[in-house]
Amino acid sequence: MKRFAGIVSLLAVVTLCLFALAGCGGDKKSARQLKVYNWGDYIDPDVLKDFEQETGIHVVYDTFATNEDMYVKIKSGGSDYDLAIPSDYMIARMIRDGLLEKIDTGNLKNYKLIGDSYKDLDFDPKNEFSVPYMWGTVGIIYNKKMVDEPVDSWGILWNKKYAKQIFMLDSPRDSIGITLKYLGHSLNTGVDSELGEARDKLIEQKPLVLAYVVDEVKDKMIAGEGALAVVWSGDAVFMMEKNEDLAYALPKEGTNYWFDSMVILKGAKNKKEAEEFIDFMTRPDIAKRNVEYIGYASPIPEVVKRLPQETQEDIASYPSMDMLRQSGAEVFNDLTENLPKYDKVWTEVKVAQ
Ligand code: N2P
User: Fold this and answer.
1) Per residue in 83-120, is it b (16+ CB within 10 Å) or e — as a string?
2) For ligand 1, atom 6: residue with the closest CA
Protein backbone atom coordinates (compact mmCIF):
# COMPACT_ATOMS: atom_id res chain seq x y z
CA MET A 1 0.00 0.00 0.00
CA LYS A 2 2.80 2.29 0.96
CA ARG A 3 4.43 1.57 -2.39
CA PHE A 4 1.15 2.37 -4.19
CA ALA A 5 0.85 5.69 -2.38
CA GLY A 6 4.43 6.43 -3.36
CA ILE A 7 3.64 5.83 -7.01
CA VAL A 8 0.51 7.98 -6.81
CA SER A 9 2.37 10.90 -5.34
CA LEU A 10 5.15 10.46 -7.88
CA LEU A 11 2.56 10.61 -10.63
CA ALA A 12 1.09 13.72 -9.08
CA VAL A 13 4.48 15.39 -9.05
CA VAL A 14 5.13 14.44 -12.68
CA THR A 15 1.73 15.77 -13.72
CA LEU A 16 2.33 19.03 -11.86
CA CYS A 17 5.69 19.40 -13.57
CA LEU A 18 4.14 18.79 -16.96
CA PHE A 19 1.53 21.47 -16.25
CA ALA A 20 4.25 23.85 -15.17
CA LEU A 21 6.21 23.19 -18.36
CA ALA A 22 3.13 23.64 -20.49
CA GLY A 23 2.52 26.87 -18.63
CA CYS A 24 6.00 28.08 -19.55
CA GLY A 25 5.41 27.14 -23.16
CA GLY A 26 2.09 28.92 -23.25
CA ASP A 27 3.70 31.95 -21.69
CA LYS A 28 6.25 32.32 -24.48
CA LYS A 29 4.94 35.69 -25.58
CA SER A 30 5.89 37.39 -22.36
CA ALA A 31 9.31 35.70 -22.12
CA ARG A 32 12.06 38.07 -23.11
CA GLN A 33 14.17 37.09 -26.07
CA LEU A 34 16.81 38.46 -28.41
CA LYS A 35 17.88 37.37 -31.89
CA VAL A 36 21.60 37.85 -32.48
CA TYR A 37 23.46 37.50 -35.79
CA ASN A 38 27.24 37.33 -35.30
CA TRP A 39 30.38 36.12 -37.07
CA GLY A 40 31.30 32.47 -36.54
CA ASP A 41 33.67 31.89 -33.61
CA TYR A 42 33.25 35.44 -32.37
CA ILE A 43 32.10 35.09 -28.76
CA ASP A 44 32.92 32.97 -25.72
CA PRO A 45 29.91 30.59 -25.61
CA ASP A 46 29.87 30.80 -21.80
CA VAL A 47 29.38 34.55 -22.02
CA LEU A 48 26.19 33.91 -23.93
CA LYS A 49 25.00 31.49 -21.24
CA ASP A 50 25.84 33.97 -18.49
CA PHE A 51 23.91 36.70 -20.27
CA GLU A 52 20.84 34.48 -20.42
CA GLN A 53 21.20 33.53 -16.79
CA GLU A 54 21.75 37.07 -15.51
CA THR A 55 19.01 38.73 -17.51
CA GLY A 56 16.50 35.96 -18.13
CA ILE A 57 16.62 36.93 -21.82
CA HIS A 58 16.62 33.93 -24.13
CA VAL A 59 19.10 34.41 -26.98
CA VAL A 60 18.47 32.96 -30.42
CA TYR A 61 21.95 32.96 -31.92
CA ASP A 62 22.98 32.55 -35.58
CA THR A 63 26.32 33.04 -37.29
CA PHE A 64 27.64 34.24 -40.65
CA ALA A 65 31.06 33.97 -42.32
CA THR A 66 31.36 37.28 -44.18
CA ASN A 67 29.84 40.74 -44.16
CA GLU A 68 28.37 40.06 -47.59
CA ASP A 69 26.56 36.91 -46.43
CA MET A 70 25.15 38.81 -43.48
CA TYR A 71 23.99 41.70 -45.65
CA VAL A 72 22.14 39.49 -48.13
CA LYS A 73 20.25 37.73 -45.34
CA ILE A 74 19.24 40.93 -43.58
CA LYS A 75 18.43 42.89 -46.71
CA SER A 76 16.18 40.14 -48.01
CA GLY A 77 13.98 40.63 -44.91
CA GLY A 78 12.19 38.00 -42.91
CA SER A 79 15.23 37.09 -40.83
CA ASP A 80 13.95 38.95 -37.79
CA TYR A 81 17.31 39.62 -36.12
CA ASP A 82 17.50 42.31 -33.46
CA LEU A 83 21.25 42.70 -33.35
CA ALA A 84 24.21 42.08 -35.67
CA ILE A 85 27.96 42.74 -35.62
CA PRO A 86 29.08 43.95 -39.08
CA SER A 87 32.32 45.70 -40.02
CA ASP A 88 32.85 49.41 -40.70
CA TYR A 89 32.15 49.59 -44.47
CA MET A 90 29.12 47.36 -44.13
CA ILE A 91 27.76 49.47 -41.28
CA ALA A 92 28.03 52.54 -43.54
CA ARG A 93 26.13 50.68 -46.24
CA MET A 94 23.44 49.52 -43.84
CA ILE A 95 22.99 53.06 -42.52
CA ARG A 96 22.68 54.29 -46.12
CA ASP A 97 20.08 51.59 -46.82
CA GLY A 98 18.06 52.47 -43.72
CA LEU A 99 18.63 49.03 -42.20
CA LEU A 100 19.71 50.21 -38.74
CA GLU A 101 18.04 51.72 -35.67
CA LYS A 102 19.66 54.51 -33.74
CA ILE A 103 21.12 53.33 -30.45
CA ASP A 104 20.54 55.41 -27.35
CA THR A 105 24.01 55.24 -25.81
CA GLY A 106 22.55 57.08 -22.81
CA ASN A 107 21.01 53.72 -21.84
CA LEU A 108 24.42 52.03 -21.85
CA LYS A 109 26.24 52.21 -18.53
CA ASN A 110 29.49 50.95 -20.02
CA TYR A 111 29.59 53.05 -23.19
CA LYS A 112 31.91 55.57 -21.55
CA LEU A 113 34.57 52.86 -21.26
CA ILE A 114 35.10 52.68 -25.01
CA GLY A 115 38.35 54.33 -26.09
CA ASP A 116 38.17 57.60 -28.03
CA SER A 117 40.11 56.16 -30.97
CA TYR A 118 37.15 53.88 -31.68
CA LYS A 119 34.53 56.62 -31.71
CA ASP A 120 33.57 59.21 -34.36
CA LEU A 121 34.91 56.97 -37.14
CA ASP A 122 33.94 57.68 -40.76
CA PHE A 123 31.41 54.87 -41.05
CA ASP A 124 29.31 56.25 -38.16
CA PRO A 125 30.66 59.75 -37.54
CA LYS A 126 28.28 60.61 -34.69
CA ASN A 127 28.22 57.15 -33.07
CA GLU A 128 24.49 57.00 -33.57
CA PHE A 129 24.17 53.47 -34.94
CA SER A 130 27.01 51.32 -33.65
CA VAL A 131 28.93 50.34 -30.53
CA PRO A 132 32.47 48.96 -31.04
CA TYR A 133 33.01 45.27 -30.28
CA MET A 134 36.44 44.25 -31.64
CA TRP A 135 39.00 45.51 -34.12
CA GLY A 136 41.95 44.07 -35.99
CA THR A 137 43.91 43.67 -39.19
CA VAL A 138 44.22 41.37 -42.18
CA GLY A 139 47.60 39.66 -42.46
CA ILE A 140 49.44 36.48 -43.37
CA ILE A 141 49.75 33.55 -41.00
CA TYR A 142 52.56 31.20 -41.99
CA ASN A 143 54.14 28.00 -40.78
CA LYS A 144 57.81 28.64 -39.92
CA LYS A 145 58.64 25.01 -40.64
CA MET A 146 57.36 25.30 -44.22
CA VAL A 147 58.36 28.88 -45.06
CA ASP A 148 62.05 29.63 -44.62
CA GLU A 149 62.23 33.17 -45.96
CA PRO A 150 61.02 36.45 -44.49
CA VAL A 151 57.30 36.99 -44.85
CA ASP A 152 57.10 40.73 -45.40
CA SER A 153 55.25 41.14 -48.68
CA TRP A 154 51.91 40.02 -50.07
CA GLY A 155 54.03 38.85 -53.00
CA ILE A 156 54.83 35.60 -51.22
CA LEU A 157 51.26 34.51 -51.96
CA TRP A 158 52.21 34.42 -55.64
CA ASN A 159 55.40 32.38 -55.13
CA LYS A 160 55.09 29.09 -57.07
CA LYS A 161 57.23 27.41 -54.42
CA TYR A 162 54.12 27.35 -52.23
CA ALA A 163 51.75 25.95 -54.86
CA LYS A 164 48.74 24.30 -53.19
CA GLN A 165 49.95 25.35 -49.76
CA ILE A 166 48.18 28.72 -49.72
CA PHE A 167 44.76 29.50 -48.25
CA MET A 168 42.97 32.64 -49.36
CA LEU A 169 40.10 34.31 -47.53
CA ASP A 170 36.77 33.53 -49.15
CA SER A 171 35.74 37.13 -48.66
CA PRO A 172 35.66 39.52 -51.63
CA ARG A 173 36.74 42.75 -49.97
CA ASP A 174 39.63 41.07 -48.15
CA SER A 175 41.08 39.10 -51.05
CA ILE A 176 40.66 41.87 -53.62
CA GLY A 177 41.84 44.40 -51.01
CA ILE A 178 45.18 42.76 -50.24
CA THR A 179 45.82 42.25 -53.96
CA LEU A 180 45.22 45.95 -54.60
CA LYS A 181 47.64 46.81 -51.77
CA TYR A 182 50.26 44.46 -53.26
CA LEU A 183 49.86 46.26 -56.60
CA GLY A 184 50.33 49.61 -54.87
CA HIS A 185 46.71 50.74 -55.16
CA SER A 186 44.13 51.81 -52.61
CA LEU A 187 41.90 49.00 -51.40
CA ASN A 188 38.98 51.36 -51.98
CA THR A 189 39.83 52.16 -55.58
CA GLY A 190 37.14 52.65 -58.18
CA VAL A 191 39.60 52.86 -61.06
CA ASP A 192 38.73 50.22 -63.64
CA SER A 193 42.30 49.53 -64.76
CA GLU A 194 43.44 48.95 -61.16
CA LEU A 195 40.57 46.59 -60.48
CA GLY A 196 41.36 44.80 -63.74
CA GLU A 197 44.96 44.33 -62.60
CA ALA A 198 43.77 42.91 -59.28
CA ARG A 199 41.42 40.51 -61.06
CA ASP A 200 44.23 39.27 -63.33
CA LYS A 201 46.57 38.86 -60.38
CA LEU A 202 44.01 36.83 -58.43
CA ILE A 203 43.31 34.64 -61.45
CA GLU A 204 47.06 34.12 -61.93
CA GLN A 205 47.24 32.99 -58.28
CA LYS A 206 44.42 30.44 -58.48
CA PRO A 207 46.57 27.38 -59.34
CA LEU A 208 48.61 28.04 -56.18
CA VAL A 209 45.57 28.29 -53.90
CA LEU A 210 44.67 25.17 -51.97
CA ALA A 211 41.27 26.57 -50.97
CA TYR A 212 39.28 29.76 -50.39
CA VAL A 213 38.14 29.49 -46.78
CA VAL A 214 36.93 31.52 -43.82
CA ASP A 215 36.58 29.99 -40.34
CA GLU A 216 37.82 26.55 -41.50
CA VAL A 217 41.30 28.01 -42.01
CA LYS A 218 41.97 27.75 -38.28
CA ASP A 219 41.78 23.97 -38.05
CA LYS A 220 43.72 23.56 -41.26
CA MET A 221 46.64 25.81 -40.32
CA ILE A 222 46.78 24.40 -36.79
CA ALA A 223 47.00 20.91 -38.31
CA GLY A 224 49.88 22.02 -40.56
CA GLU A 225 47.89 21.59 -43.77
CA GLY A 226 49.07 24.86 -45.31
CA ALA A 227 52.19 27.01 -45.43
CA LEU A 228 50.55 30.43 -45.78
CA ALA A 229 47.08 31.86 -45.25
CA VAL A 230 45.43 35.25 -45.42
CA VAL A 231 43.60 35.67 -42.12
CA TRP A 232 42.10 38.13 -39.69
CA SER A 233 44.36 38.99 -36.77
CA GLY A 234 42.34 37.47 -33.93
CA ASP A 235 42.10 34.17 -35.73
CA ALA A 236 45.90 34.32 -36.11
CA VAL A 237 46.27 34.83 -32.36
CA PHE A 238 43.97 31.87 -31.75
CA MET A 239 45.99 29.65 -34.13
CA MET A 240 49.39 30.71 -32.77
CA GLU A 241 48.24 29.70 -29.29
CA LYS A 242 47.51 26.20 -30.58
CA ASN A 243 50.55 25.69 -32.81
CA GLU A 244 53.85 27.36 -32.00
CA ASP A 245 55.19 26.92 -35.55
CA LEU A 246 52.76 29.60 -36.71
CA ALA A 247 53.57 33.30 -36.97
CA TYR A 248 51.70 36.40 -38.17
CA ALA A 249 53.00 39.09 -40.51
CA LEU A 250 51.67 42.45 -41.66
CA PRO A 251 53.12 42.97 -45.17
CA LYS A 252 55.05 46.14 -45.92
CA GLU A 253 52.73 47.24 -48.72
CA GLY A 254 50.08 47.96 -46.09
CA THR A 255 46.86 46.18 -45.25
CA ASN A 256 43.28 46.63 -44.11
CA TYR A 257 42.46 47.42 -40.51
CA TRP A 258 38.86 47.12 -39.49
CA PHE A 259 36.32 47.72 -36.75
CA ASP A 260 33.43 45.38 -36.00
CA SER A 261 30.60 47.02 -34.08
CA MET A 262 27.29 45.99 -32.59
CA VAL A 263 24.23 47.39 -34.37
CA ILE A 264 20.48 47.17 -33.80
CA LEU A 265 18.46 46.30 -36.87
CA LYS A 266 15.61 48.45 -38.12
CA GLY A 267 12.29 47.42 -36.65
CA ALA A 268 13.93 45.19 -34.02
CA LYS A 269 11.22 43.72 -31.80
CA ASN A 270 13.59 43.47 -28.86
CA LYS A 271 15.39 46.78 -28.86
CA LYS A 272 15.64 47.03 -25.10
CA GLU A 273 17.06 43.52 -24.87
CA ALA A 274 19.53 44.39 -27.64
CA GLU A 275 20.74 47.38 -25.64
CA GLU A 276 21.11 45.20 -22.56
CA PHE A 277 23.19 42.77 -24.62
CA ILE A 278 25.40 45.56 -25.96
CA ASP A 279 25.97 46.90 -22.46
CA PHE A 280 26.76 43.41 -21.17
CA MET A 281 29.29 42.80 -23.95
CA THR A 282 30.95 46.12 -23.13
CA ARG A 283 31.34 45.30 -19.43
CA PRO A 284 35.09 44.92 -18.86
CA ASP A 285 35.03 41.45 -17.24
CA ILE A 286 32.82 40.12 -20.04
CA ALA A 287 34.76 41.87 -22.82
CA LYS A 288 37.96 40.42 -21.40
CA ARG A 289 36.55 36.90 -21.46
CA ASN A 290 35.56 37.33 -25.11
CA VAL A 291 38.99 38.71 -26.01
CA GLU A 292 40.70 35.81 -24.30
CA TYR A 293 38.49 33.27 -26.01
CA ILE A 294 38.44 34.61 -29.59
CA GLY A 295 41.83 36.38 -29.78
CA TYR A 296 40.64 39.72 -31.19
CA ALA A 297 41.47 43.21 -29.93
CA SER A 298 39.20 45.14 -27.61
CA PRO A 299 38.38 48.82 -28.08
CA ILE A 300 38.07 49.14 -24.28
CA PRO A 301 41.33 50.43 -22.69
CA GLU A 302 40.24 49.07 -19.31
CA VAL A 303 40.22 45.56 -20.83
CA VAL A 304 43.53 45.93 -22.67
CA LYS A 305 45.23 47.07 -19.45
CA ARG A 306 44.26 43.81 -17.78
CA LEU A 307 45.91 41.65 -20.46
CA PRO A 308 49.48 40.34 -20.18
CA GLN A 309 52.10 42.91 -21.24
CA GLU A 310 53.27 40.71 -24.13
CA THR A 311 49.76 40.60 -25.59
CA GLN A 312 49.46 44.38 -25.35
CA GLU A 313 52.69 44.71 -27.32
CA ASP A 314 52.08 41.94 -29.86
CA ILE A 315 51.46 43.28 -33.40
CA ALA A 316 49.01 40.46 -34.05
CA SER A 317 46.83 41.64 -31.18
CA TYR A 318 47.49 45.34 -30.73
CA PRO A 319 49.46 46.96 -33.57
CA SER A 320 49.73 50.70 -32.96
CA MET A 321 47.33 52.74 -35.04
CA ASP A 322 50.20 55.08 -35.95
CA MET A 323 52.28 52.19 -37.23
CA LEU A 324 49.34 50.98 -39.28
CA ARG A 325 48.60 54.36 -40.83
CA GLN A 326 52.28 54.94 -41.62
CA SER A 327 52.43 51.60 -43.42
CA GLY A 328 49.59 52.75 -45.66
CA ALA A 329 46.97 50.54 -44.04
CA GLU A 330 43.42 51.58 -44.84
CA VAL A 331 39.90 50.98 -43.57
CA PHE A 332 37.42 49.71 -46.17
CA ASN A 333 34.97 52.34 -47.41
CA ASP A 334 31.39 51.79 -48.41
CA LEU A 335 31.97 51.51 -52.17
CA THR A 336 28.56 52.87 -53.17
CA GLU A 337 28.45 53.09 -56.99
CA ASN A 338 31.73 51.16 -57.39
CA LEU A 339 30.41 48.09 -55.57
CA PRO A 340 29.25 46.28 -58.74
CA LYS A 341 32.82 46.49 -60.08
CA TYR A 342 34.11 44.53 -57.07
CA ASP A 343 31.29 42.01 -57.34
CA LYS A 344 32.23 41.48 -60.99
CA VAL A 345 35.94 41.03 -60.19
CA TRP A 346 35.14 38.46 -57.50
CA THR A 347 32.77 36.50 -59.75
CA GLU A 348 35.37 36.45 -62.53
CA VAL A 349 38.03 35.22 -60.14
CA LYS A 350 35.80 32.51 -58.71
CA VAL A 351 34.70 31.12 -62.09
CA ALA A 352 38.16 31.28 -63.72
CA GLN A 353 39.73 27.87 -64.35
C1 N2P B 1 35.78 35.72 -36.65
C2 N2P B 1 35.45 36.80 -37.60
C3 N2P B 1 36.33 37.97 -37.50
C4 N2P B 1 35.78 39.19 -37.98
N5 N2P B 1 35.59 34.47 -37.20
C6 N2P B 1 36.61 39.92 -38.92
N7 N2P B 1 36.11 41.20 -39.12
Assistant:
1) bbbbbbbbbbbbbeeebbbebebeebebbebbeeebbe
2) 232
Give me the CATH code for the 12-17+25-134+259-312 domain, please. 3.40.190.10
Among 5-14, 61-70, 265-274, the least confident range:
5-14
Is it true that 12-17+25-134+259-312 and 136-257+319-351 share their CATH fold? yes
Distance CA 175, CA 198 (A): 9
- Pocket of ligand 1 from Cβ distances under 6 Å: 39-42, 87, 215, 232, 235, 258, 260
Domain residue ranges of the chain, discontinuous segments joined by +: 12-17+25-134+259-312, 136-257+319-351
Predicted TM-score (pTM) of the model is 0.91
Pick the atom of ligand 1 nearest to 87's CA.
7
- Rounded Cα distance, 120 and 27, in Å: 42
Given 3.40.190.80, 3.90.226.10, 2.60.120.620, 3.40.190.10, which CATH number is that of 136-257+319-351?
3.40.190.10
Question: pLDDT digit string (tens) for 215-243?
Answer: 999 999 999 999 999 999 999 999 999 99
Q: Which atom of ligand 1 is nearest to 41's Cα?
A: 5
The pLDDT tens digits for 179-211 are 999 999 999 999 999 999 999 999 999 999 999
